[in-house]
Design goal:
2 copies of one chain form a homodimer.
Chain A (H helix, E strand, L loop, with lengths): L2 H9 L4 E6 L2 E4 L4 E4 L2 E4 L2 E5 L5 E6 L4 E4 L1 E6 L8 H8 L4 E6 L2 H7 L1 H10 L6 E6 L17 H5 L7 E7 L2 H6 L2 H9 L5 E3 L6 H9 L4 E2 L5 H9 L3 E5 L7 H4 L11 E4 L5 H6 L3 H10 L4 H6 L3 H6 L16 E4 L7 E6 L2 E5 L2 E2 L27 E2 L4 E7 L6 E7 L1 E3 L2 E3 L7 E6 L8 E7 L7 E4 L8 E5 L2 H13 L3 E6 L2 E7 L11 H17 L7 H8 L7 E4 L2 E4 L4 E3 L4
Parallel strand pairs in A: 1-6, 2-7, 8-9, 9-10, 10-11, 11-12, 13-14, 14-15, 21-26
Antiparallel strand pairs in A: 1-4, 2-3, 4-5, 7-16, 16-17, 17-18, 18-19, 20-24, 21-22, 23-24, 25-26, 25-28, 27-28, 27-29, 29-30, 31-32, 32-33
């Protein structure tokens, strides 16, 4: 709508398109909640207060109206579905904007992957704003599907939905003034630059902040968050599937700090998204933890809008987009209606228009290039003791163990009796056949194997098993599906979740993905593991940026020395 | 300083240029005050905390350090000195950034006047950021020295110190969707757009906000401010020489509202600037009124920085400009040291380097074009009663009175016995000789006359007197000085403050301007007026945007009907 028409509506001289009556407005600017009518025209809020006429009216029955929620930082790939389907899950929750870092798909498909996420979200009832992945590949000790230079990333700057630079995980590179990293910062000068610096403190934190990094979502204690806040980083309070920091950070929330705090989900699996929700869950958890409801709502509306310079949303005031969340209980906001651009897009947990969503058949090239002939997991013995990755339940860090090898016919074997399982990371992007082999303890399979192509950040094919045959079956099942997760025993595939989109995402509804995942976990548990989610655990055993011992396609990585080390001592 | 060098300092591997030791940091982000050392390199804050080395150290002796202050809205012309001299007055107060609207000089000299303000502030130890004057001329019922279209204003957009569009005083034009006004809004789309809407309320306020106006500094009650805050306007709390709103607005300040509140001085005369101060005075007044000191400081640092998108200042954190204010008393901050870009620029109320400031001889064309031959203040009688402007002490509004004319030889005369004085507004920009003539009551001169070229917004030459001869003397004195303020009696000039820069500003030190002004006021008071500042009162009697009856060079203006009305009934 052109401004003169909007002004006529605001003046009350022209009927609005829609009038929301009988609602209680959560005004995140004045910090108040009070009854007010909301007149909407052309997708924009035209005016607040009584006395407006409209072509259509909706009686909110005394419900509350807050701005549409903004997830300040989310990797959509972790929902295992593409953006449009992700939208179907989160929009009914009240989320109307997601700031996303397509880091996972970028590691598989590079710029093409990022463009896929942009295109797939084009018609979605969710504003998907993209930060350009800054660390592809994450390190030189892995083979990812792509590498993105500052020049590559700069090609994204012209896109209207590209905001800034995504979490600069290479914080040592920033601090050291690494030329390659600085080139990326320069390319995004004046734009938001996201941070990621778990545990960073002291002068190194000062340097990271001095480089212009704007936020951090890796704080695990209030003390850590306070030091970062003091240094100028906006704190994104995260409650992900595998990293739940909200409760620990609540002590930081005060009237004087709250404006520099935002909520984000980072990584949420289908089951959590569908059961708990998105940032709406974080709002409820914050309120339950004692945070004032208006403050909690600010942390997912006004604060991220201001942090990212999104002047067209984040508050219900004239001139801003009519992105709205309607709910009944201020103590536990749960969306009953969601408006996006003045249009009712979801009601009672369901998207109203799913046309154009379910029919999406995304076109992506195959990304799992594995030659079955070369899939040999046997390990030739070169000593009597081996380094073993020591998995710790619910933690991303591992121990670096040394155990006696189980030798048989000159080969080192898995030995489930001692919880010594074999692990392989198979390069899957370029079909090199390159494979890292090693051993892991703590996963607890008694027999069989699990495999998957979701493995942060390189997303190669990872397999863990009690015997080579099961490992081969699981790996081939995943490869054949074009990516995914599988559990196998001997020659039998027990369960398979195909993720044909970059080996990361399904092309089916998120509910089906959740159900498949449930079956898959049951299968894995039937093989003897006691880990809550052995697939997630497995994916982090190949993440060589977190200590102590990890496995990539290039071999065993001693993370502290940051170099490849031999399997045998 | 390049980023790699800054990072080396932040890491502690390279000495800082300057280390501020033994200070207590006012951290406006975390809302805390705590001891911290501040390491500065290349004008930028490199790091906070202990352990830094530096080439130079300053011991702050336990004093507090806050970010350099930001005056969110000021007309520098009201200080009666140009920007560099204004800086000399406010920088020692801790003000390191002023967002200015060169509206007054623009009404005299158009774009050339704006460029003069930009150039004159180029080397000043104050960051003068300019918003482009949106209402030149203010109305069609006056003759100003220039008219600025949207296209004219757009030529300023490329200047690095031009922020956005200055106060859109023509709020009826915005609300009505006036094409000329909307063109200006369009030209500054995405930039800050300042507002000015005294008393605006209801649906008209909603329309004004919907147009994208970002703030208002005209609130006189907390209720008015709350309604505007709810509608999305950031509230600039003003404490000007002639409009003091701070006390009335303090009830609005709360932990939930403070982030949308800023402090501004708008218009401050030399005496107030030198005696009370700039925004530092407002901070002290706010604290004295019960506002938390950190919140009060935020309102003149972080809040205006965020409002205007100034990401390089407003907080003391790594990577931001080392603009700092050092003071001893948190309950009444008064700058003892001021750093700008890491350099100590003022100490104990004095600028340290005045080189290049006093030697400035600004080149501006003459702007007072008055032909003495045509300066005839006689009024031919055309009836027996006249409309009379009823001045009200300390108010900008006037009454519209009707009084019997004092007729003599077919002419209407001043009659000081009845407090009926003659007033003239002489067009001075183009030498047209055009003059508006009328009568005023409430100024109280018993004899003589006062004259001046400061008259919002057109700044024509205004004269008020008890007899035509005194009026002529005063007017000619001002004209001969190239602009200024004068008091005269008969043929004697009693006092004169020359303002040769556009008829608005002096080329002498602000202290001398203050002293001249004091002499001038004494002279005016000796002529019988009891008004605190009859020159300021006079300047608003010619401001035809504020009710009820005003005089411009085009004649008497009935403000409510917004048209010229005859003097005689």
């Amino acid at each position: 709508m052109e401004l003169p028409q909007l002004l006529a509506v605001a003046r009350g001289e022209r009927p609005a398109d829609l009038l929301l009556r009988n609602g209680r407005l959560v005004n995140v600017l004045s910090g108040e909640v009070y009854p007010a009518e909301i007149a909407i025209a052309g997708g924009t809020i035209a005016g607040l207060g009584a006395g407006y006429d409209a072509r259509e009216e909706i009686d909110l029955g005394g419900r509350f109206v807050a701005p549409g929620l903004i997830d300040a930082h989310v990797h959509i790939e972790s929902s295992m579905v593409p953006p449009a389907e992700f939208a179907r899950a989160v929009v009914p929750r009240g989320v109307t904007t997601a700031v996303t870092d397509p880091h996972e798909i970028a590691n598989v498909l590079g710029l093409a992957g990022i463009r896929f996420m942009l295109e797939q979200s084009e018609g979605a009832p969710l504003d998907v704003l993209v930060n350009a992945p800054s660390c592809v590949p994450a390190t030189h000790l892995e083979t990812s599907g792509a590498g993105l230079t500052a020049d590559d990333l700069a090609t994204l700057l012209g896109h209207p939905r590209v905001l800034g630079l995504a979490e600069v995980m290479n914080y040592p590179g920033v601090i050291a003034g690494d030329e390659e990293v600085l080139a990326k910062l320069r390319a995004f000068r004046g734009r938001p630059i996201d941070g990621h610096c778990p545990g960073l403190s002291g002068q190194r934190l000062q340097a990271y902040a001095a480089a212009g990094i704007g936020n951090d979502h890796e704080c695990t204690t209030a003390a850590e968050a306070l030091e970062k806040l003091r240094a100028g980083l906006t704190i994104f309070v995260r409650e992900a599937t595998n990293a739940r920091n909200l409760r620990a950070l609540l002590p930081l929330v005060s009237p004087l700090t709250e404006r520099r705090l935002c909520l984000c989900t980072d990584d949420r699996h289908p089951a959590d998204l569908l059961m708990e929700g998105s940032v709406d869950h974080l709002i409820r958890a914050a309120i339950a933890g004692g945070v004032d409801p208006v403050v909690a709502i600010r942390m997912a509306t006004l604060n991220p809008a201001e942090h990212y310079g999104l002047r067209d949303r984040g508050a219900i005031i004239p001139g801003r987009r009519a992105d709205l969340m309607v709910f009944r209980d201020l103590a536990a906001p749960r969306a009953e209606m969601v408006f996006r651009g003045g249009k009712l897009v979801a009601q009672y947990g369901r998207l109203l228009e799913t046309d154009g969503l379910s029919s999406l058949v995304p076109a992506l090239p195959p990304t799992v290039h594995i030659d079955p002939q070369r899939l040999d997991f046997s390990i030739r013995a070169a000593g009597s003791s081996v380094r073993v990755i020591g998995a710790i339940p619910d933690q991303l860090v591992t121990e670096s163990l040394v155990m006696d090898a189980s030798l048989q016919d000159g080969r080192a074997m898995a030995d489930p009796g001692r919880d010594l399982l074999k692990m392989a990371v198979v390069e899957r992007h370029r079909g090199t056949g390159r494979m890292g082999l090693g051993f892991v303890r703590g996963v607890g399979l008694k027999r069989g194997a699990i495999a998957g192509t979701v493995a942060h950040d390189h997303h190669n094919l990872v397999v863990i098993g009690a015997d080579d045959a099961s490992m081969r079956t699981a790996a081939l099942a995943v490869a054949k599906a074009g990516g995914g997760l599988a559990a196998a025993e001997g020659e039998n595939v027990l369960a398979l979740l195909p993720l044909p989109l970059a080996g990361l995402m399904s092309d089916r509804p998120i509910e089906e993905v959740r159900d498949d995942m449930r079956v898959l976990l049951e299968a894995a548990h039937s093989l003897g593991t006691a880990l809550h989610d052995p697939f997630m655990a497995m994916s982090f055993l190949a993440l060589e940026v977190i200590p102590a011992l990890k496995l990539t396609d290039l071999g065993l990585v001693d993370v502290e020395r940051f170099e490849i080390v031999p399997l045998f001592l």
